[in-house]
Amino acid sequence: MSYCSTRGGVASVDFADAVRMGLATDGGLLVPEALPSVTPQTLGEWRRLRFQDLALEVMAPFVGDALPRADLVELIDRSYATFAHPEVTPVVEVGDTSILELFHGPTAAFKDVALQFLGNLFEYLLARDGGQLNIVGATSGDTGSAAIAGVRGKDRIQIFILHPQGRISPIQERQMTTVLDANVHNVALRGTFDDGQRLVKALFNDLSFKERYQLGAVNSINWARILAQMVYYFYAWGRVADRLRGRPVTFAVPTGNFGDIFAGYLAKRMGLPIERLILATNRNDILTRFVASGAYATGEVYATLSPAMDIQIASNFERYLYYLVGEDPQRVRALLDEMGRTGRLRVTGEEHAQVQRDFTAVAVDDAATLAQIRETYETTGYILDPHTAVGVRAGAGQADLVCLATAHPAKFNEAVREAIGCAAPAPASLRGLMDKPTRCVVLDADIAAVRDYIGEALAARP
Ligand SMILES: *Cc1c(COP(=O)(O)O)cnc(C)c1O
């Protein structure tokens, strides 16, 4: 399988190179040059597979010759052995809704599904092909801890995660700072999340620093993350297929960067019988407005009860645009130019009609999020986290629905308590965090301070 850039400046790179590249060198995102399709007969066979074996079948055509099959088997097995549930991503029945629980990984949020795999894959490629990777990222909470959990203790990888001091939840902070592996470097910035993002951007723009220290990112644009996320759409369908009796399934997906729901969109393009993909956002509704109007325009970012979805620009949106305009890189570039010049882009009437066939978009505010947590708890006893509650609310009334549960409720107990007056019990991965030893340095939100710290930490490596 070969990959190309959505902007046309990169073509014919294999899976390993696509993973190493992350962002395409022309500034675009990497996509497969052709999607494999899955026949109804194959789908029927996949229904009986356990998660790891299904992951192998879904991933193998995308990996192609870049890795021997036996090595891919081993990577998959190791990546999902860290999950606390034997089914990895089980589907549970809650009232008349099916919930796909994606939060049984080490940090209790769905990003583990992709980042456990990506961490092992990076380690494998570096061991095989040589080199070294120094990951630098800023986090407002969830991504940092999942990235750290994905690469802790791995050879040839160092990770630096910047978080705003005192501005993330105590659990999220401890999930990062209690990781004491020598290759993990937590930095608490005297500043905001935006300061962290600005500093990381500045480091990546400092090309001599970037090359000297082989900086890499783990944000949601890496193709391997999308690939790992496609698996659970097939898996969930297999779990509910008997009940569907041949009818297609509908998924409700809490969405921020568009990565998770884009994986579902690709599964549908490959032949998975999906009736609707419900794109659920919180008050930060740039994507909902796009589906409603055909215009994509940035706005202000609001803080909500579902903070992992508080985004202004959905980093995977460009991949969807590419398919929407018929895999035409020139047209993608024209739309992005328009966005760069004017702060907005607008697709044609025909394309807009296609968008509305692809997605049903619903924005859910904090009051409705709390109401949903309360209602589900009162009628079924099941506790939703606020991100999942946004999806469940958005999917209300749909038949044959599977809602993606993206975080364990105990990770967001402040909102849970506000909704139902009590907290969700913590899973083993979140217990005892407040009593463990921590390591973290505190730095000013200043480029020189951060650059010096990273340089010194890397120079001290053997
Ligand atoms: C990251 C995240 C999301 C949003 O996923 P995207 O791929 O960015 O759309 C939703 N819920 C939780 C808990 C997350 O951590």
Give a description of the structure.
The mean pLDDT is 95. The protein has 462 residues and is α/β, with parallel strands linked by helices. The protein has 19 helices and 15 strands. The protein has a six-stranded mixed beta sheet with strand order 3-4-14-9-10-13, with helices on both faces. A five-stranded parallel beta sheet has the order 8-5-6-7-15, sandwiched between helices. Helix 10 (223-244) packs across helix 11 (259-270) and helix 16 packs across helix 17. The chain has helices at residues 15-21, 40-46, 51-63, 69-80, 111-129, 142-151, 170-177, 193-205, 207-212, 223-244, 259-270, 286-293, 317-324, 329-342, 349-358, 366-380, 386-395, 413-420, 447-459; strands at 3-5, 30-32, 91-94, 97-101, 133-138, 157-164, 184-190, 215-216, 249-254, 274-281, 295-297, 344-346, 359-363, 401-405, 441-444. It has a domain at 91-107 and 224-426: Rossmann fold, CATH 3.40.50. It is 47% helix and 16% strand. Strand 5 (133-138), helix 6 (142-151) and strand 6 form a beta-alpha-beta unit. The structure holds pyridoxal-5'-phosphate. Pyridoxal-5'-phosphate is lined by residues 109-111, 142, 220, 254-260, 308-309, 387, 406-407. Residues 109-111, 142, 220, 254-260, 308-309, 387, 406-407 line the site of pyridoxal-5'-phosphate.
